[in-house]
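pinging the channel bc i need a second pair of eyes. not urgent but kinda urgent?? the chain im working w is below, pasted from the shared doc
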Amino acid sequence: MFTGLIEGIGKVSSTKNVGNDMRITVEPLFPMTDECRVGESISIDGVCLTVTDISKELVSMDVSGETLSRSTLRFLRQGHEVNMERALLLTDRLGGHLVSGHVDGIGKILKKETQQRSWLLRIGIDEKLSHYTIEKGSVAVDGISLTINRCAESFFEVNIIPQTGRETTLLKKKVGDQVNIETDLIGKYVEKFFLRDRSTGDRDGGSGIDMEMLIKQGFGD
């Protein structure tokens, strides 16, 4: 589990295809390897991977074919920069939001423009993903926890402040570039419980979440 607060940037040292899988080796451009251990989880551009080797300031991870098919990691090559975050400690402050590192899909940058000191990004997504985006809700873009300013059926917009721009790779992306998208984890679970109760009519042993309850709590029109 991660927070979406990027610790630093890494540079891809090498990639190696192993059948349908891939091994990625990254050089962190910030102090990290002294505290990193083999077997730990690490987020690379928002994708949760397991550290398989640490050698001479380099960190290696194996990526399955399934993960490659659902993320932008399959496009990584030597010299590419990536966002890196180690797994959340229970004693840490949760400054971003709960990010699992299980990417939902790939988005495309449709617009990038300056707004005073920040940047506005419009990111196109599949309509199935837009179902889980809400105004002022959270989303992870290449592992970065961001607040949605505006959303529609095929895109959402976020603002990148100078601090985020300096500490991540996002502002180095161009219009047309692809990014990993993970929508809010909590919203997906709420939807599953709600739909299960509606389909089964289970009011006794279910979660108790239904339209009547939501309206009573002030979530209806």
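so The two ends are 34 Å apart (CA to CA). and The CA atoms of residues 108 and 218 lie 35 Å apart. — does that match what u expected or am i reading it wrong
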